[in-house]
Design a protein that fits this description.
This protein has about 475 residues and is an alpha/beta fold. About 45% of the residues lie in helices and about 15% in strands. Strands 2-8-7-6-5-3-4 form a seven-stranded mixed sheet, with helices on both faces. The chain has a five-stranded mixed sheet with strand order 1-11-12-10-9. The longest helix has about 35 residues. It binds pyridoxal-5'-phosphate. Pyridoxal-5'-phosphate binds next to α7.
Length: about 475
């Protein structure tokens, strides 16, 4: 079949109209609690069901629609209120529209000449988000996820401390070390690895009982590194840690960084949206003293993946770190000062700003504030509900919008707590979580904390209620009754 036959106007009209209907039905069903989050199948069975095979001859637009429908049906419904597995959730029609239009325009964010509108949107969003962090002016760039924003921060900090590294690489005598908490996201040590500093040079600072980096421990570790002949250059604080959602104390860390002339980065990939709330903004007091800030609108603000900004109060750092002046791309035009391609490690770059812009227009600052405050309130209620039940044990007092706890199966409740008990508890919690996933009604995650599997509920879905939380805990008790 000739390609033109596949894309004639009538068939595009009909397929896109049906796709719009599919999307709209799908979105409205996200509120239906009776819907499964996932119709779970293991990989072998799923492969069989999907009949994955690419054709020699094109099958046309109709086939594309049929496949898309079947793939969506078998995918995890991440906008469902009972998808509590990841730090992102929800579904936002305005943002979806932005995603579609961005693909339709198919611009690349490197130059003003191919992305004039989106370049200006990005500048505006950077300015607005920077202002919320307390900076009158700043620079920034949208990246494909918080991991890349953190990497870009490490590269910028490395460039400030070891400017020769861009051209010549790190030298044996450089001996750089950076610090992050032992509960920082793994993208920070990985960034150290990618930046040629090495994972061992990302030193893990102990946390307090809530999960916040301890400034006293950091001070000792900086002293020790200096005494051993290393060159500390950066502290990566976390605002909203991946498991307990804790906020490292930025003011105290900023004091230490100023004293030792270290770059202070705030990884607020998860927690950045507290800046919308007067009530909770104090968790990020001191953010205006940082040198860089990662903030993912694709987490608590509900914009679809991926959407992550890196913001820096001192202009020029991104270009100083990344620019290579490729002359086939960046020309000496009157508008070249708007080109953003040399601020990043990417060449072609997706338009991630349109979906955020449209979502922000649709919700406003106040809509996001309500969403954030609701998540905090719900977490406080969830904590109280957990405490009332013998079948659960809270593992950390929540500071952000996640609940960390363990399920205590009836068979273990009255037994002595020794190593064998711990092992049984670990197995029971992992089994419970797998059971729930296979049933498909609720998805939640777990990780090892203090050496033991710990369940995590992320409570940022805007439609989640206290009633839902009761149901979720009931379901866990039901599914774990015989463990
Ligand atoms: C604290 C923190 N930083 C960074 C990241 C990485 O973000 P992304 O998944 O967008 O790469 C995560 C992911 O969950 C995170 O929790």
């Amino acid at each position: 079949m000739a390609d033109s036959v596949l894309t004639t106007k009538p068939s595009i009209d009909s397929i896109l109209a049906r796709a719009a209907r599919l999307a709209s039905d799908y979105l409205s069903e996200n509120k239906n609690r009776d819907r499964l989050v996932v119709d779970w199948l293991p990989p072998g069975k799923l492969r069989e069901k999907l009949g994955l095979k690419l054709p020699k001859e094109g099958r046309g637009l109709e086939a594309a629609f049929t496949d898309a429908q079947s793939f969506l049906k078998r995918s995890v419904r991440t906008g469902h209120p009972y998808f509590l597995n990841q730090l992102y959730t929800g579904s936002d029609p305005a943002a979806l529209l932005g995603e579609w239009i961005a693909s339709l325009a198919n611009a690349s964010m490197y130059t003003y000449e191919v992305a004039p509108v989106f370049t200006l949107l990005e500048e505006e969003l950077v300015r607005k988000m920077g202002k919320m962090a307390g900076w009158e002016d700043c620079e920034g760039i949208f990246n494909p996820g918080g991991s890349i924003s953190n990497l870009m921060a490490v590269l910028a900090a490395r460039n400030a401390a070891f400017p020769h590294a861009k051209q010549r690489g790190l030298l044996a005598e450089d001996r750089p070390v950076l610090f992050c908490s032992e509960e920082a996201h793994y993208s920070v040590p990985r960034a150290a690895s990618v930046a040629g500093i090495g994972i061992d040079a990302a030193r893990k600072v102990p946390v307090d009982s809530i999960g916040r980096m301890r400034p006293d421990a950091l001070a000792s570790m900086i002293q020790k590194a200096l005494a051993d002949g290393f060159k500390p250059f950066m502290v990566s604080a976390t605002c909203g840690t991946t498991m307990p959602g804790a906020f490292d104390p930025l003011e105290e860390l900023a004091d230490l960084c100023e004293e030792h002339k270290l770059w202070l980065h705030a990884d607020a990939a998860f927690g950045g949206s507290v800046l919308f709330s007067k009530k909770h903004r104090n968790l990020m007091d001191g953010v205006e003293r940082t040198n860089s800030l990662s903030w993912n609108p694709h987490k608590t603000m509900g914009v679809p993946l991926s959407c992550s900004a890196l913001l820096l109060p001192e202009k020029g750092q991104l270009k100083a770190t990344n620019a290579l002046d490729a002359d086939y791309l960046f020309h000496d035009t009157a508008e070249a000062y708007c080109d953003r391609g040399d601020m990043t490690i990417q060449c072609g770059r997706r338009v991630d700003v349109l979906k955020l812009w449209l979502s922000w227009q649709s919700h406003g600052d106040e809509g996001y504030r309500r969403r954030v405050e609701r998540a905090f309130d719900l977490t406080a209620s969830g904590r109280d509900l957990l405490k009332l039940r013998d079948s659960f044990e809270l593992v950390r007092e929540p500071e952000g919008c996640t609940l960390l706890f363990r399920f205590l199966p009836p068979s273990l409740r009255e037994q002595e707590r020794d190593e064998a008990w711990n092992e049984k508890l670990e197995r029971a919690n992992i089994t419970l979580r797998e059971r729930l996933k296979h049933e498909g009604r609720i998805m939640l995650n777990y990780a090892s904390l203090d050496g033991l599997a710990t369940l995590r509920l992320v409570l940022t879905h805007p439609d989640l209620t206290v009633e839902d939380l009761r149901f979720i805990l009931d379901e866990m008790e039901r599914a774990g009754a015989n463990l």
